Amino acid sequence: MSTLRTTMAGYARYRGREGQLSFLLHRVTGLGTLLFLAIHILDTATVYFLPNLYSDAINIYRSTLFGIAEMGLIFCVFYHGVNGLRIAYFDMIAPKNWEIPSERKTAIWTLVISLVIWFPAFILMARNLLINNFGLGG
Amino acid sequence: MQITVKIYRHIPGVDTQPRYDEYTLDVDPKERILDLLENIKGFKDGTLAFRRSCAHGVCGSDAMRINGRNRLACKVLVQDLDTDQIVIEPIIGLDVIKDLIVDMDPFFEQYRSVLPYLINDDPLPADGKERLQSQEQRARFDDTTKCILCAACTTACPPFWANRKYVGPAAIVNAHRFIFDSRDHGAEQRLSRLSEPDGVWRCRTVFNCTEACPREIKITQAIAEVKEVLASGKINYKGVQIGPERVGSG
Amino acid sequence: MQTHQYEVIIVGGGGAGLMAALNASRGAKTAVLSKLYPSRSHTGAAQGGIGAALGNLEEDHPEWHTYDTVKGSDYLGDQDAIEFMCNEAVEAVYDLEHFGLPFSRTPDGRIAQRPFGGHTNNVTGKPVRRSCYSADRTGHMILQTLYQQCIKNNITFYDEFQVFDVLVANGAVAGVVAVDLATGELHVFQAKAVVFATGGFGRVWEITSNAYAYTGDGVAICLRRGIPAEDMEMFQFHPTGILKLGILITEAVRGEGGVLINGEGERFMERYAPHVKDLASRDVISRAIYMEIRDGRGINGKNYLYLDARPETINKYAEADGRTRPDGTPYRVTGEEILSKIPDIADFCRTYLSVDPIKDPMPVQPTAHYAMGGIPTDVYGRVLVDDKNTILPGLYAAGECACVSVHGANRLGTNSLVDILTFGKHAGLNAAEYVKGTDFQNLPEDAAGFTMAQIDQMRNGDGTEKVAELAQEMKREMFNNVGIFRSEAGLKAAYKKIQELRERFTHIRVQDQGKIFNTELINAWELGNMLDLALVVTESALARTESRGAHAREDYPKRDDANWLKHTLAWLKDGQVTLGYKPVTITKYQPKERVY
Amino acid sequence: METSTIAPNTRQVRVPKNYETTAWKWMRYSALLLIPLAWIHVILQDVIVGVHRIDLNYVALRWANVGWRIYDIALVAFAFAHGMNGLRQILAEYFPSPKARQTLGWILLALWFVITAIGVVAVVGGVRMPKQ
Ligand SMILES: Cc1cc2nc3c(=O)[nH]c(=O)nc-3n(C[C@H](O)[C@H](O)[C@H](O)COP(=O)(O)OP(=O)(O)OC[C@H]3O[C@@H](n4cnc5c(N)ncnc54)[C@H](O)[C@@H]3O)c2cc1C
Ligand code: HEM
Ligand code: SF4
Ligand code: F3S
Ligand code: FES
Q1: Are residues B211 and B134 in the same domain?
Q2: Most exposed among A2, A112, C149, C193, judged by the fewest C-beta atoms under 10 Å?
Q3: End of a domain among C350, C365, C380?
């Protein structure tokens, strides 16, 4: 597995620019979402297969740790979505954008847009968490 | 100006471990990185090994990782790096043979696999003269004719680091050069190679290739165009003329 | 040590070598040995174009091309060979197009052509559009295209194999000895025919447009085996190299209307070549620049001038010259158009000078560029070993390392690419033809002995001298005293210096004692080659007491046809140069004074 | 004398149809659908409603509406297939040997099928209230 080592070292040490950053983010967010989705399908399925366990499952989601992870998940879904749209648009509709100025610009904008739409969600979720897990705010 | 240069040194099979040798040099900021290497080799350490020939970015010999990025040592000036700490390492994904020299054979093998030559079995023009091609058609593939096979792109590509069987951006660039040449009839053969599991689809549009290309080829764009042909089955040979290329020029 | 057997071995994977390989491999078992991957050969650096009288944009004839070349050569070129080459040029260019070369195009889809120095309409004397081009990357396209064809035809390559020696047995070629750079192993290649196509040796000079690999290996190897070198004093200095770096700025910039400007803002070429001005032949312009600088008219009195390709300047002088487009309209350009014609030059200027060529003028100085001399051959690439044109069976040479001679005392721009194609092809064809009727020569006992001896010497010297220092001293000496202008005193001083350096060379000892990619050892050996060539160049130049083409003697400013209308042949034996001469072939064009 | 003519500006070529090509298109087309599907789902469930208000009753209430059931089935089908194909591509990159790829492919296919089936069956079957 020496290539795997090389690859990971490359991710960490090759000074790629916006493109490498968005590739890594897209991949991590995609995998993160997938992992969550798989778990989520399974836990939701308990409503039919093992209804007794559902409330245990949902309790895990309500823990603080999971609450924070969930905020991350939302970011993953937003970032992956915006960036996925960007890639799909470039690939299928306007390949002319695959050049340095527009790649660098759009990659940064993608991150900014994701953060902008994530921020209100983050506030709402943080509020939920604070209220329910720490009894704050009424 | 005083700078320190750290260079990766390793001869697999001879040295047990790679090491970094450090040199302190007094340089003119306008010097090329290649000039530093020549200087070190000539006056400090003759055992340092690297490739070079043309010294002005047209032969493709000296792709290496300079401060973490693939570039040609002869096309980067000290002042371009904006620092007095310079780290020079071999490109990633091809086996190091000695210091900054890597084994290029697999790279050329990939290049050959896309049939990088004009395929056209039609009879030549009866008058023995040129096959005609409009200026717009010529412009269509101009960008990808510039490739000097330096491997800076392929060895900057994360999917290639992981999977050396991936045909790589350089080979796709050279396939593009022929697929979009209106005189060529070999697109189908090339496309069938490129649609293989280790062909063009392994590109995840990371864009490191385009950033690294010393010839400023729009590599990711070229790759996207090849993908588009694979997806649609249609080749458009009409390019955009850059500038009012009025021919003959008086 | 490994041994291989091929009928034809080609040494060098540049334009000439690949062309020879393509043609030889059709009839014989062929392999190409090259110290660089073929796609990295210096043919790829050629920018401006390849000359051929296609007449795509205006009237032109191979005879005009022939005359221009003869005149350009200052009548030292062999006219039969020149005529042969100029006639073949047209087909060579069409062949390249059929191979897939992406030439720039005319509006009706034909190969585009542009004017180049020394190429004229023989009736009007005005510049003619003869140079077929692909932007400013013509050489790159030629090299790539030929390499592609070699891949298509499954040519056998030994990449990064450096040839050290040619073996001769029973008066005929027996093979070559090469080092595999990756392993340091010696390989002996038995062959019936060997084609040298190793390029030039501009690295002998300090400021040069030539690659690091241009160390004259082929010529030096042949000299060591008793084969002479022809017209070595004829080395071209290109007028426009990037200041200090020597990187070439193609003549095409002037073809597109760029002009040379001195420190007083004057377009001085009007004084030196009133008819074609900035498109005079290279030797004329390099000398003009030198004289301007010498007379204190460099930029700020320094040793460089400006090449000005800003659209306003181009338009101003185009108007003054009354220059027109092919359709008769006045010639006017925009910055964009200039950039589209010379994209790489613009890139070099930005990278190395931080100068934008359409906004600022480019600082230039003459740069060592091209070897007109080399291994003497006939038009079939066969190597000629004496003044009676005796051939050495099986030995061929083509390209810049050979001297046919089609460039005489000065090569016209675009003619080298024609040369490598034409003579590369014929050398290949003839080698394949020749091997049909011959057997392999037995390899001498100890075939690699001479090579080993050379290597051992570099490994085991006393180490009191350093390769890099010797190289620096040689380059400086050659640039100062065996450069654009020469004089007896300077040449004698250079001769002494080179002899001293050659003695000091015996004391070097390489630090790298390994085998794998021992580039230090290779560089040292290459320096040895350059020192041999430097000696031969200097001695040949010292003897020629006239000024002709690139060879300009301050003490003998006139051409002297009565005594010097002849080719120099130089042999190198035991560190001493012996000179001989042979006549120039003159067919149609009697020498006359050369004015542009 | 006959001369050649300029070739037409477009040409149709026979392109190989294979799984990779289809997968590439699939990733992009499914992406378009996933924006509304995935985003509305997470915004609604995770942000607006929040896990603390989600329990069996909530799920039962939601699935009382057939529209939401179809929506959820579509989400499972598209998102999971998209994600698993993404995972397949990533693994193919790190495991270049055809054998490894084939094995992984089958494992992923099985996983995909089982989990998708579980999800779909659950949505179709609906909430079964536990016996108290
Ligand atoms: C910057 C520049 C611009 C130019 N522009 C033009 C132009 O516009 N038009 C024009 O007509 N001419 C031009 N020229 C000149 C022309 O490009 C060259 O003269 C010509 O390309 C030489 O070709 P070649 O095949 O002889 O040598 P090269 O292409 O240099 O090939 C030499 C080959 O020999 C190999 N080799 C050398 N030594 C050894 C050894 N010991 N063992 C094994 N292999 C060896 C090398 O690896 C290389 O493959 C230009 C030259 C330069 C430098
Ligand atoms: C929200 C809408 C979504 C959009 C627009 C979208 C878009 C895309 C696109 C275009 C790709 C292909 C990237 C490439 O080929 O380089 C991709 C890859 C991927 N997607 Fe999505 N996707 C979305 C949702 C999801 C979801 C919900 C998951 C998880 C189940 C997911 C998991 C993945 C994975 C794992 C990859 C592979 C990443 C890689 O190759 O590095 N995506 N996505
Ligand atoms: S595409 Fe660019 S980076 Fe890649 S090999 Fe060609 S020149 Fe080098
Ligand atoms: S870096 Fe690699 S993934 Fe594609 S865009 Fe370039 S080839
Ligand atoms: S030495 Fe030729 S590209 Fe750098």
Answers
A1: yes
A2: A2
A3: C365
| H-helix or E-strand spanning residue D11 | strand D10-12
Rounded mean pLDDT of A68-87?
96
Mean pLDDT of A129-136: 87
**Can you give the pLDDT at residue B158?**
97
Task: Judge if B111 and B46 occupy the same domain.
Answer: no
Contacts of C206 in chain B (CB under 8 A): none
Q: In terms of domains, do C412 and C402 share one?
A: yes
Q: Neighbouring chains of A at 3+ CB pairs within 8 Å? A: B, D
- Tell me which residues of chain B, numbers 148 to 167, contact chain D at a CB-CB cutoff of 8 Å: 159, 162-166
Residue A1 in this model has a pLDDT that exceeds 90: no
Q: Which residue of D55, D60, D80 is in closest CB contact with A58?
A: D55
Ligand 4 atom, smallest distance to B172 CA: 7
Ligand 5 neighbour B120 (Cβ under 6 A): no
ipTM: 0.95
DSSP C401: G
C423-453 per-position pLDDT tens digit: 999 999 999 999 999 999 999 989 999 999 9
Atom of ligand 5 nearest to the CA of B52: 1
Of D16, D23, D98, the CB nearest to B191: D16
Q: Which domain holds residue B157?
A: 105-241
Is the CB of residue C535 less than 8 Å from the CB of residue C577?
Answer: yes
Q: Any chain B CB within 8 A of the CB of A100? A: yes
Q: Which CATH fold would you assign to the domain A18-134? A: 3 helical TM bundles of succinate and fumarate reductases (1.20.1300)
Per-residue pLDDT tens digits for A9-64: 999 999 999 999 999 999 999 999 999 999 999 999 999 999 989 989 999 999 99
Task: Give the span between the Cα atoms of C471 and C531, in whole angstroms.
Answer: 9
Give the per-residue pLDDT at B44: 96
Q: Is D49 on the interface with A (CB under 8 A)?
A: no
Q: Residues C558, C570: one domain?
A: no
Query: Phi/psi zone of residue C527: left (φ > 0), alpha (ψ -120 to 50 degrees), beta?
Result: alpha
Length in residues, chain C: 596
Query: Average pLDDT per run of 10 along chain B, which is 250 residues long?
Result: 97 95 96 97 97 97 98 97 97 97 98 98 93 96 97 98 97 98 97 95 97 97 97 93 43
Select from B213, B182, B194 the least CA-distant residue to B113.
B194
Q: Where are the alpha helices (DSSP H) in C170-216?
A: none
CA distance C544 to C580: 11
C463/B contact by beta carbon, under 8 A: no
Return mean pLDDT, chain C: 96
* Residues C64 and C164 grouped into a single domain: yes
pLDDT at position D1 over 80: no
**List of chain C residues with pLDDT < 70:** none
Query: Catalytic positions of C, please?
Result: 282
Q: How far apart are CA C326 and CA C334, in angstroms?
A: 17
Residue C289 sits in which domain range? 243-365
Q: Are residues C475 and C591 in the same domain?
A: no
The tally of domains found in chain C comes to 3
Q: Considering only CB atoms, which chain B residues are within 8 Å of C516?
A: 11, 14, 49, 97-98
Q: Which of B80, B91, B206, B223 to mutate to test the interface with A (most CBs of A within 10 A)?
A: B206
Distance C32 CA to ligand 4 centre (A): 33
| Residues B58 and C44: beta-carbon distance below 8 Å | yes
Q: Do B231 and D11 touch (CB under 8 A)?
A: no
**C-alpha span between C35 and C160 (Å, rounded):** 4
* Residue B60 CB–ligand 4 contact under 6 Å: no
Q: How many residues does chain B have?
A: 250
Structurally, chain B folds into a number of domains equal to: 2
Comparing CB atoms, the residue among A6, A13, A100 nearest residue B210 is A100
Residue C91 belongs to domain with CATH number? 3.50.50.60
Answer yes or no: do B94 and B218 share one domain: no
Q: Are B152 and B72 in contact (CB under 8 A)?
A: yes
